[in-house]
């Protein structure tokens, strides 16, 4: 079980987008990175390729962030929070916020 999953609302802790919030679009497990909607946008210069129908120019795309540079957002406290794991009485393993003990996965 991962601490950060697709669909989680996160806060960026470091870098040019520090303090911004977004939703995780994809988790890249092999490299411990996440792709967040609208965060870490870069300009990419593309060459035109008429054979594939690709127009040239400058496009903006999202680049992955390392998992250590983000934290999950806690709605109850309104701040970034750390995640822990615990096993409930019925045997399910769930994620919970370390600050208030509230379960993330309802």
Q: How does this model look, in words?
A:
By secondary structure, the protein is an all-beta fold. The chain has a domain at 9-78: SH3 type barrels, CATH 2.30.30. The chain is built from no helices and 10 strands. It has a 6-stranded antiparallel sheet with strand order 6-3-2-1-7-8, with no helix packed on it. A two-stranded antiparallel sheet has the order 4-5. Strands 9-10 form a two-stranded antiparallel ribbon. Strand 9 (83-87) and strand 10 (93-97) form a beta hairpin. The relative contact order is 0.21. The model has no long low-confidence stretch (mean pLDDT 93).
User: What percentage of amino acids are in beta strands?
Assistant: over 45%
Number of strands: 10
- Unreliable parts: none
Enter the CATH topology name of the domain at 9-78: SH3 type barrels
- CA gyration radius, whole angstroms: 18 Å
User: At CATH's second level, what is the architecture of the domain at 9-78?
Assistant: Roll
- Report on the biggest sheet: 6 strands, antiparallel
